[in-house]
Amino acid sequence: MTQQPVLGVEVKDELLRAAEVALTRCLRVKPGESVLIITDEPLRRIGVHLWVKARELGAEAIYVEMIARKVHGEEPPKPVAEAMKAADVVIAPTSKSLTHTVARKEAAERGARVATMPGVTEDIFVRTMSVDYELVQRLTEAVAKVLDEGREVRVVTSLGTDLTFSIEGRKARRSTGVLVNPGDWGNLPSGEAYIAPVEGTANGVVVVDGSMAGVGVLTQPIKILFKDGIATQIEGGLEAAKLNELLSKYGVEARNLGEFGVGTNPGARISGVVLEDEKVLGTIHIALGSNFDFGGRVKAPVHLDGVVTKPTVYVDGSLLMKDGVLQISI
User: Which residue of 56, 151, 222, 317 lies most exposed, with the fewest beta carbons within 10 A?
Assistant: First the structure.
């Protein structure tokens, strides 16, 4: 079926099918609901397809295109933030992530179901919307339960990672891709269980060898040394220098160990797009910066994820993952 271009965008059936899965299977959009699509010029094509499909589903579909943010975690313009709080459903395919922003937090607190899709490409959108999300949900719940009940995490790898931190008293977030209740929020595509480490407790070394937000797929590992919760040294090649440059614009809070996450999506692969990379089954990721919106205490203007492949993870001394293979049953 051929459709006329919408807002100058050629409408493609495969993108409409992916949009339909996102809207119906993941967000359960109902006729008459207000659905706010927030995008920017680089991701306009995906934003338009979501708007077209939301309109076809009988929603009050609203399309907003803003100027692309400079870094992940930067707040959207105030009029966009206000619109988010008034919508039933918010979907944000944007170049930089709105996940860890005050705007997203306040929208969810007002009851909006919020799906953020930072950096999503057409290939990722089509491919990852065909995953068995029931399997993703089971894996995510199983990992999150272990983290909920845990007190201390240790991560080691053959490349030199050896990091320990506390998660005592913290609860894990489940990013399952199923966002059906008022206030539910998360990424699409989904597939991770993540938690905010207790501030000031992280000590040791992480060797990020998969990808790094703001940098992309790595050609050389980035070695990050943590002392009392803060990344005090970042070493490696040109990509480590780029990360140092990114962080140099901000204060010490941007170097906080803000997140520990475990990927649970069997269809995801490391592509250089953090949205997908952090969901890859068999990996873990850490993030530098903000975590106030999922159980932590740090408000920073950035949130940068780094993916570690083939990790071994202990929670309170028991194996959760060995060389990238989950040691739990579902």
Answer: 317
Task: Say how far apart CA 176 and CA 138 lie, in whole Å.
Answer: 8
Q: Does the predicted model carry a pTM greater than 0.90?
A: no
Cα distance between residue 83 and residue 87, in whole Å? 6
Backbone angles phi, psi at 212, to 5 degrees: -140, 130
Question: Exposure string (b/e) for 163-191, b if CB count within 10 Å is 16 or more?
Answer: bbbbbeebebbbbbbbbeeeebbbbbbbb
* pLDDT tens digits, one per residue of 267-313: 899 999 888 999 999 999 999 999 998 999 999 989 999 999 999 99
Residue with token string 């990344």: 231
Residue length of the chain: 330
Place of tokens 């790595």: 218
Q: Where in 119-253 does DSSP place strands (E)? A: 152-156, 162-166, 173-175, 185-187, 192-195, 203-208, 211-212, 216-217, 222-227, 230-235
How many other C-beta atoms are found inside a 10 Å radius of the C-beta of residue 272?
16
Q: Return the CATH number of the domain spanning residue range 13-128.
A: 3.40.1830.10
Q: Following DSSP, what letter does each residue of 36-98 receive, concatenated?
A: EEEEEGGGHHHHHHHHHHHHHTT-EEEEEEEPPPSSTTPPPPHHHHHHHHH-SEEEE--SS--
Is 128 strand, coil or helix? helix
Chain centroid to CA 323: how far? 23
- pLDDT tens, 118-145? 999 999 999 888 788 889 999 999 999 9
Each domain of the chain, given as residue ranges in start order, spans 13-128, 133-326
Q: Assign 131 to helix, strand or coil.
A: coil
* One-letter identity of residue 12: K
10 contact partners, CB below 8 Å, separation of at least 6:
none
